[in-house]
TrEMBL record:
Residues 7-122 form the Response regulatory domain. It holds the Pfam family Response_reg. This is Response regulator. SMART domains: REC (SM00448). PROSITE patterns: RESPONSE_REGULATORY (PS50110). InterPro entries: CheY-like_superfamily, Cyclic_di-GMP/3'3'-cGAMP_PDE, Sig_transdc_resp-reg_receiver.
Length: 400
């Protein structure tokens, strides 16, 4: 019985090497072997839970360095090990510079040396995963705080994120996306370019009024501006690229003019474009059949499979009734975790302060209180309040 869930992939043209790996590690790890590069890559693409990838330098197909570099697209955190009987400096340089190899092993390799190398590689992978998870959690918290602040100053631009985020997560679940972090970050940052636009251009664009040539250029440059703001932040490089391509149509229309088409557009960018356009096409009370009919007019701009999934997933949900209890309260009684049922508006001018669906944090509540003292906010406020956690059934702690 395998005592460890770590998956080891071994690619080597020598069947004796593959047999040796299977015999040596069968009781410790899940071992998958291949004698050439393309079948190995195909398997890795469909099985992302890979901890270590081992390849010989002269692997049939695209070679060891080419195979290890290609695998990074699907499992970027997997540790890469190269087996080689060559002592060429060029082989080592190519493997390190292009394939990010963690360790070299010379053929022939003793079982003890091989075991130590794989153990060190698995440990390295675990550290990488831990550090990546910690960084993502820290970055997510920082982004959430930033978006909360921007929502108060640019409420109209950011009001759609609270609607689109749960929609995106539902789509991701149906599509069996294993990681949704980049999708969530892209949704949260999607209004950033719009928020940076001059108010005159934004108001004319929303009202479908004619724009001057210079105004159209500024509007068209918003995705690039967003990308340039985010691309130098660690872990947000891919998010920046997704936002840059989120206006690109499946049929090649939209921005940028020389961008990819069809399935070459990242899935996250295709989801973001669909949900953004769906939000603009939907009425205030949420998605309906008419919104999808509106998207159908320009259906070539959307991934047909994604459009079909979204219609089935989101429209059936919209037909349901939200049976959650509604709590009516004043600002001083709001609690972190409360979800707004309605838009929060100013008392006199009825200007939007914070959009419905927004989940409140302590910082947001404090800012609302300050805003109320300055401009006045319509109260009471309707919220969905999370049910308190019942701790009465929790086991008692043992005492000495």
């Amino acid at each position: 019985m395998v005592a460890n869930v770590n998956q080891i992939v071994v690619a080597d043209g020598d069947l004796k090497v593959l047999d040796a790996f299977e015999r040596l590690f069968a009781g410790q790890y899940r071992v998958k072997t291949f004698d050439e590069s393309e079948e190995a890559l195909k398997w890795i693409k469909e099985n992302h839970g890979v901890s270590v990838i081992v390849s010989c330098a002269n692997l049939p197909g695209r070679g060891g360095s080419g195979f290890l570099k290609a695998s990074e697209t699907y499992v970027p955190l997997a540790t890469r090990v190269m087996l080689t009987a060559q002592n060429s400096v060029e082989v080592f340089k190519q493997a390190v510079n292009e394939a990010g190899v963690f360790m070299f092993l010379s053929k022939p390799c003793s079982p003890q040396e091989l075991s130590s190398a794989i153990e060190a590689s698995v440990a390295h992978h675990s550290r990488m995963v831990f550090e990546r998870t910690l960084l993502e959690k820290t970055l997510s918290g920082s982004v959430k705080l930033l978006i909360d602040m921007l929502s108060l100053f640019h409420s109209e631009a950011f009001r759609r994120t609270s609607v689109m985020r749960p929609q995106a997560l539902k789509l991701a679940k149906v599509l069996e996306m294993k990681k949704t972090w980049e999708l969530e970050m892209a949704i949260m940052f999607s209004p950033l370019g719009e928020a940076l636009l001059p108010k005159e251009i934004l108001s004319r664009y929303r009202a479908a009024k004619t724009l001057t040539e210079s105004q159209r250029e500024i509007l068209a440059g918003a995705p690039a501006q967003t990308r340039d703001l985010l691309k130098n932040i660690p872990q947000l490089e891919k998010v920046a690229e997704v936002l840059y391509l989120s206006g690109r149509g499946y049929d090649g229309s939209g921005f940028p003019e020389d961008g990819p088409t069809g399935k070459d557009i990242p899935l996250t960018a295709r989801i973001l474009k669909l949900l953004t356009d769906l939000w603009y096409a939907s009425p205030e009370n949420g998605v309906d059949a008419a919104a999808f009919e509106a998207l159908g007019i320009n259906h070539r701009q959307y991934d047909p499979d994604l459009l079909k999934v979204a219609r089935a997933c989101l429209l059936s949900e919209a037909l349901g009734v939200d049976e959650r209890e509604i709590t009516l309260c004043y600002i001083r009684a709001l609690k972190p975790g409360d979800e707004l049922v309605d838009d929060i508006l100013t008392e006199g001018t009825h200007e939007l302060v914070l959009s419905r669906g927004h989940q409140l944090t302590g910082t947001t509540i404090r800012r609302l209180d300050q805003y109320n003292h300055v401009a006045g906010i319509r109260q009471p406020i309707r919220v969905h309040r999370p049910a308190p956690v019942d701790t009465s059934q929790a086991p008692e702690k043992a005492t000495a």
